[in-house]
Amino acid sequence: MTEYLSVDGGTIAYEVTGSGPLIVLAHGMGDSRDAYRAVIPALVEAGYRIAAVDLRGSGESGVDWPAWSRTALAGDLLAVIRHLGGPALLVGHSISGGAATIAAAQEPSLVTAVVELAPFTRKQSIGLGDLRVKRVRQGMLRLLGAGMLGSVRLWRSYLDVAYPGVKPADWDERLGRIDSLMREPGRMKAFQGMARSAPTDAGDQLGNVERPVLVIMGTLDPDWADPQAEGSAIVASLPSGLGRLEMLEGAGHYPHDQFPDEVASLLLAFFRSEAVRA
Fold this sequence. Notes:
Helix content is 44%, strand content 18%. The chain contains 13 helices and 8 strands.
């Protein structure tokens, strides 16, 4: 059942399932909390209370917001955690990986640990060598086209590249849901606002994080020519000993949707580790 939280500037939609320690799940741009539909059952069964959040402008959340930065998204996530009686284990995908970083740095008392799935958490630069990688070239052209032209068709085309090889069993239904949401008034504007938001604010906070961080990258993520190098750079920017990188062979930009069982296992092992429980 969808619940709503009024925060400064709008309304955030979320759904709570299960009972136990709180895990907050945040999706990437152009998506909704539905992105975690295959991961949530395993987390609930393991004894956690899951709050899956629709980012501002996405899913069932409001569309009229003054800002789309990762800092703004972090404020929304912290508001949800506070409302639900935190602290929380915070999971963020793509743009929300950066938002989770900021949230953990700003209010460590509310964030027990952070998981970043294919995160945009550092300043990005694309060189000619990157464009020689076919999947990067294909993904970038579609992603830029979707943002510049406001094209739902190009966004769906990008998703096809972002899910290399393995597609979820409900792939057609998932695309249909995304297509429907993105055509609602204000949703594409939100997507474009997030697409224009640089991750520099998250990068500036990496060194201020005090909680354990797990970074999960897919080996075939089209957003980076070398996803492992990107993940390693994030870990290296964190205080020594706080970060750890896991690579998922064959995964693209949505490892949690392509390989939900593997991601759920990684999350649970991390959340139960001595570093987090300490």
